Amino acid sequence: MPTQAQLRSEYENAAAIGLRRACQEAEERYDLPRGLMLAIASRETNMRNINGDGGHGRGVFQIDDRYHQDFLRKHGSPPPVDASAMYAASLIASNMKYAKEQGVPEKDRLRVAVAGYNAGMGGALAGYRSGAVDSRTTGDNYSSDVLARRKAIVSFLPTAMVGITVGAGVAIGFDPPGEDGDRKLPGPVSDDEKGAKNGGRGRLVNEGAKRGPMIVLDPDKMRSAASLLARTSNELDRDAQLIKTQASKVTLPPQVRTNVLAEIAAIQYRMRALGNGAEDQAEDLRKRANRIDEPAGASRRSAGKAKLARKPVLARGATGATVKTLQRLLNRLGFGPLAVDGIFGPLTQAAVQRFQRAKKLDSDGVVGQKTWAALLGQPVPKPVTRPSGDAPAAGKGFGASLVKIARGQRGYDEYGNNGNKFSAWANRPAEPWCADFVSWTYAQAGKPVGPNGKGYAAVSQWIDYFKARGDWHTAPRIGAAVMFDWKNGGVTSDHIGIVTRIEGHSVYYISGNTSGSGGTGVYEKSVPLANVTGYGWPPQ
So which domain of life are we looking at (predicted)? Predict the structure, then answer.
């Protein structure tokens, strides 16, 4: 690690290229600790906007041209500092979300996410579970070095002032305490039209309007802001009284004392006005958060009077706002208590199964349309029957193209030990080739990805690819890449295929390196929703 003086020199030079401002804006947007992005920039390039890393790293954050081609194609090489900082911060935020989904405790998520920036999340999680999170990072010390640099860099940063508007033309500025003095006011955040990376919160948007920047309202953060405003109100009232008490202890000439007390009275009046405004805003935020958080279909409607909108199928491993809605409904109906954390884990699964048994539904722990209807007091929908014959069409768009191309390869069988045309196309040796099959399919559909357009040989690389694009999800979609453990299910991923349809509690997919009637080849099979790790959605 560099010395304090060396870091100070890097920090001062960073201002000249706009890196300090860019990092601050990126950290605020993705709710990351102050100084983190500067620390990563220091580790990667000593805060310089250069190309390096054996010819593949681009810019101050060394964004790899083998895995982030779309970003670099758009922004150039090296990319602008502000775009690089925002993109790198989005990767860290995505890594933290994924770490949470994989059960990493909150206290360890930042370290795992930072290690994942260097080694990929597959490598970071493998190291973490073995007891050495950095064991697969460069120098075996990437995250520990970055966090040590951050600790030093925070001491260089100016005091962070946070403003809260409490009325027309009235604002409160303060310096909230926290770890290294870097806590920020939680509140609503905005994101671009690709969607927020904030744990699956719903977006409030007029679907008929022209698509532009979208506002994401997080009810939990709104409540945190309300608590902070209420505390500010109390502190203002306390400080107003303290000013007068301290002033009375000072001996002043009569005329001066009169003027001072008049000024103090004016200050007290203004502080109490601010405090009252803060309390009003706190109450308003609480009410708004409660309205946003109300489970869809659970209020303001009479049971059976309104048509039940189709809900996403949820199973163990799902995360996000819809899971929170599920957990609140289970608690309300007496099948808890569950922590409303948006994580569909074993406790939520067990509660779902108890509810399903009570309602005489299939107790498989998967929340499909019948279970949603019972939870919301709606009539249970009748099953949809499909005429016999070929599998359903995949619809339109790139996902449909992937399915059509994949179906065209059904019945192809490998030769020898893992010999196949898909790995040969990618200029790779005979190897387990499910990922090579997906790589070939993407290229045939007109959207080659990965180094030289030859895709990726490992499932973990595909997961990193989708996460970097913001296309990693827990809900299936036609044409999506589905990842799962083909042997035992569970949370690991060693197989990948293309989703062709979703029926009941199963996902049907086409994949290579798959056992079938003719041996090992390209076949269409199914996997239970509960055994899926996640889905890489295709571009639209």
Answer: Bacteria
What ranges make up the beta strands (E) of 176-274? 189-191, 214-216
Nearest to 164, CA basis, from 135, 132, 188 = 188
Gap between the Cα atoms of 184 and 25, Å rounded: 12
Q: Tell me the C-alpha to C-alpha distance, in Å, between residue 142 and each of 30, 39, 40, 104, 414.
A: 21, 11, 9, 18, 41
Mean pLDDT in order along the chain per 10 residues (540 residues): 86 86 90 93 90 76 86 86 92 93 92 93 91 90 94 78 37 38 36 35 38 53 66 65 69 74 70 65 68 47 45 78 86 83 85 89 83 80 44 62 92 87 91 92 92 90 88 84 68 80 82 84 85 82
Q: How far apart are the first and last CA of the chain?
A: 44
Helices (H) and strands (E) in the chain, counts: 16, 13
Q: Is the pTM of this model over 0.70?
A: no
DSSP string, 418-458: TB-HHHHHTT--S---HHHHHHHHHHHTT---SGGG---SS
Rounded Cα distance, 43 and 65, in Å: 19
CA atoms within 13 A on the CB side of 263: 8
